[in-house]
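step 3/5: co-fold with 6-O-phosphono-beta-D-fructofuranose
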Amino acid sequence: MSEIKRIAVLTSGGDAPGMNTCIRAVARCALYNGRDVIGIRDGYEGLLLGAMGPLDAREVGGIIQRGGTILGTARSEEFRTEAGQLKAMQILKEHGVDGVVVIGGDGSMRGARALAARGLPIVGVPATIDNDMWGTNMAIGVDTALNTISDAIDKLRDTASSHRRAFLIETMGRNCGYLAVMAGVIGGAEVVLIPEAPVTIEEVAAKVEDAYKRGKTHSIVIVSEGANILTTELASALEKMDVGFSTRITILGHIQRGGRPTAFDRLLASRMGVKAVDALLAGQTDVMMGLRGREVEPVPLADVVTRQREANLDYYEMAKMLAF
Ligand code: F6P
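step 4/5: write tokens
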């Protein structure tokens, strides 16, 4: 592989707190090593439009603490096609880009894998609040989202207790129950519903009623957005079944995607950004940076895009036990 002189960085898919911290780390590490840095706007969509320009050290200043992504992000249909990928390769060549760092979730890593297969030196960095990716214990943004969720649960419990209510709190996560399970543990939920462990409405109702009979003043039910029962469906069923508590719903939605990255996310994003550039400069490609134990290490993109992360059922059981 020829020497990498110009590194481009893009963010893709759903944004996640800490993406900016990572952009800064990638840019500063590359510039420190005497390389040019190009910022690509709006993910693969912007790449196909040639929407990119140089990033200098000052342009990535003052963003370490900002949520969202200064580069913008998008989900691109055209890039999924062969023609789109060939066009992307051509545009990168025209801009003299020798290597790319892609910051994003599983769809973004599939895109990175496709370009790696066409010979582009490319390294991925996992960033998604869902924590649904194989190959890393934590993705950038997860910790901040969990802190946001935990803050919301604390507030909702205050009002739930005052009115003796059951609160159904819906978390994001697509088809992965990670956020819901961890929210259940750290927020002290009575019941958690996740896609990986389907339940019936009757089972949930029995647990909520049991909590009422045991003298609890509230019942917190965390519903992952991908669970087998819809939050609204569950709420109207509980109202009809008379489980003791009256019921209210809070859908946390995109609140979970914004906000200042936590210390954990800033550290993870900085470490992964630096390691991604180091890897490119050392001639590595077709890998994603993963948090494995305490270390940030490269894992093959081929595994990231084909292997399934295991569900956190031990934490699911822990949340159940601690709801006693
Ligand atoms: O992947 C991150 C995520 O926030 C999921 O949890 C959620 O299902 C989805 O993105 C929402 O996508 P959008 O921002 O396009 O509505």
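step 5/5: annotate
The two ends are 59 Å apart (CA to CA).
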